[in-house]
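Dissemination and training. As part of the outreach component of the grant, students in the summer workshop were shown how a complex can be specified as a set of sequence lines and then modelled as a single object. The example used during the hands-on session is reproduced here so that future cohorts can follow it. Participants entered these lines:
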Amino acid sequence: MPQYILYLDRNTFFHRLDPRTKLFLVVCVFIWSSVFNHPYYTGAVLLAVLSLVFLSKTVRQLKLFWFGLLSLALMSMVLWPLFRRGGATVIGTFLGASFTLESVMYGVAVAFRLVAMVLSGLLLLTTTRIEELELAITRLGLPYPIAFGFSAVFRFIPTMVGDGLTILAAQQARGVNVAGGSIFSRLKNSAAIIAPLFITTMRRFGELPMAIESRGFVPMARRSYYLSIKMRGVDYVVVAVLAFLAALSIYLRLSGVGVVFPDVI
Amino acid sequence: MTLVTVRDVWVKYRDARDYALRGVSLTVSEGEVVAIIGPTGAGKTSLCKTMSGIIPSMGVYDEFRGEVLVDGIPTAGKKVGEISRKCAMVFQDYETQLFRTTVELEVAFGPENLQLPSEEIARRCETALKLTGLNGLEKRYSFALSGGQKQRLAIASLLSLQPEVLILDEATSDLDPAGKREVFEVARKLLSEKVIKALVLVDHHLEKVAAFADRVVVLNRGEVILEGPTNHVLSEVELLNELGLQPPETAEVFRRMSLGNKPYPMNVDDAVRLFPPVQNITPPQQTVLTHAEPAVELEEIWFAYEPGQWVVNGISLKVSKGEMMALIGQNGSGKTTVAQIIAGILRPAKGVVKVFGKDVTRQAVMVRGKEVGYIFQNPDYQIFSRSVRDEIAYGLRAWGMGEREVEERVMKVSEMVGLKGLLDEDPFFLSKAERQRTAVASILALNPKIIILDEPTTGLSPGETTALMDTVKDLNKAGTTIITITHDMWVVAKYCSRVVLMSDGRVVLDGPTREVFSNISELEKYDIEVPQVVRLSNKLFGHTFLTVDEFVENVKTR
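and obtained this result:
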């Protein structure tokens, strides 16, 4: 059975950080990569995130995603130069439209930015148990039902994938051709997978409140937690460094550093 | 002391045609095991939900009347989360009750709600996991467990709440016989060690009920129609048969042969002791398997889901044309994997699969689908059309068959499986048994020459099981080759001429059902429990009668 839960149980520095620190890192990655639009700067952010992925030994765990991330980056590199016009350095003309070095650089910068953002989220999920995240969210002051809802979504991904694969086999065994035929018949046949998956999932989620309460859960009541999370000295240091870098990045942007186009994000 | 009191409860679900419960009263006392039995739709689950407070506080009802007391306190106005701490229910669909990532955290969820400190939670987790035989799996992902393990995990996750009353609503339907027995034994142990104070169980397996329950309540159409000590109630053979339930075979033998008075013996030992002297016995005929040309041939099949962990270890197997074969074995023995390899859903790592003499090892499942039909355990994985008619017709239309011919086939098949009156219904609103029939019909319509059924009768009552298997038997008589995976040994005894027993990815016994089933001690090594009547006839006369009918016809007492 393939793995559809991202969490990988390792004992690295990054794994040991408090989930709140890791959440703050994700926020900071979003800030850093959003304030700059120069590829050197967003590239530096991406490099930082990538090195964290290496340090946390989760590269293999993300093997399902590398292709998707690469496509995302390529798409951005191709599309942005078409839409983000402006700049003075014309480097070529294609089908009557001229492209500037600035717009290409912007496309690359946004590509780095998007990959860094997605990757930081994935990094959080590969190094943190869903239940720990849930706990972190509650500790940050959000009501437990919201935290639980958040974790339930991730928890049921593997179940849904499993259901989907069984449904696919069940339908193929009765002659439903999902992979061939005209576009129209493909669409029609994909309903044979989606409809049962939808119904199965709805049944499951429909019974979830009953299932939770049957385990002694009372909405909005206080509860204790088996797992414990604790902000240790190192967490505070990391948070302080991250906050400083975030402030610095905003200051740099306001001073006009790290941008190709100063008046857009 | 009375732990649960149900007083004149009436329940009508929103927009339902009729009441689910009509004036049900029931008490559960300390130290007691109460079994609730009845046909599908009798209201068993509704009654359980009422006791655990889910009805009326969750869901929508047109009407709820009556009173329920748990531990002397009315459940009215209380939250399910509060009631479940005292009276906890394991759902029939146990998958829905699992929603954490790992085994340990699943079990910890309950005690967390009780605001216990984490050392106490750890202690309770350990106890609950040990009691259910899941210790050592603490860090495993709960969704990656086998069906049986999941069912035990659902039980463990409620035990950690340390409720006074535990309700098992068909909570062992997916377990093999050994697993079922283990769960009941665990429950019994919990009761004798006073971990819980009372146990309520809903189960179709009346032999197990006979072995574990003190008292039985029979529900039909929302009413309690009979209640009393287990052996008295289960001796009402005619009534139980009429309801489509299956009384213990020993009771049925004694009733049909008019041996002695009620209560009849509930287990083989008592039956042997009470059986009168015999006048004459017509020994059963040895079954000879057909050696017609092979329909399926497996040659040295190897399969692994994860590299190096072989689930199927070099199996070779031949299934002859027109055979009706049962594939049995414990959960995890590789039955489903083998069946899916035959259907082409899985591809073997090594070995050759032949269907009607043709090598189809590399052929896709869709091509093979015309010859091999596969019926999955859960009909909801197949059904997606808005009417039963469209569902059955789907495969035929996909083949490009003409509308008139499609209609003809649909009519023929729906008559065969008893769905004729439901063709225009939306399958979504049908019962599980009817949805199972719809799934079966949609495969039958394709007219496959080989049909594989993967535990087709899970969650069906014995009456519904018989109806389904009778249809399958008719197909077999008409020449279809049938391979069925099942945990119900009475189904094997009644319908299948050949049995293949698997263990650890290998075939360990293979032969005519009578021959294999007479080898009781060998089967016990693999935790296979043959039907009572097989054990009874073996102990009494050294012969193997497979069904009560056979026994009654061939044994004459003085």
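Chain B is about 35% helix and 25% strand. Students were then asked to discuss how this feature might be tested experimentally.
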